Hints:
Elements: E1 3-8, E2 15-21, E3 26-27, H1 31-41, H2 54-64, E4 70-74, H3 77-85, H4 88-98
Antiparallel strand pairs: 1-2, 1-4, 2-3
Amino acid sequence: MVEVIIYRNPWEDPEEVACVTIEGEVSGGTPTAESLRDRIQDERDPIISEYTDGRELLRYLAASYSNGYVMAGYDSEESRRVVEELNDAAYLDWVEESGLDTSL
């Protein structure tokens, strides 16, 4: 699975507060997870509503939820490779081969 995991207190006592898949599914029962679920479903959200694919969403989350107190990171090297390194054509091939619905 290709995911971004968001942690609170990443340096001392990491606590997972949300996990978001490339399919746009959010797991976790924290306020952060609830907020992300609401934002992904809200067509009027000024930022997330602009993303049409899960790869774009995960790139945004990995960058914007990393501020010291909260840290976001890919769940694996494979997730980072799929989201950050594949060019668009290779990514589309990966989506087709994986059978995942990454459209948001």
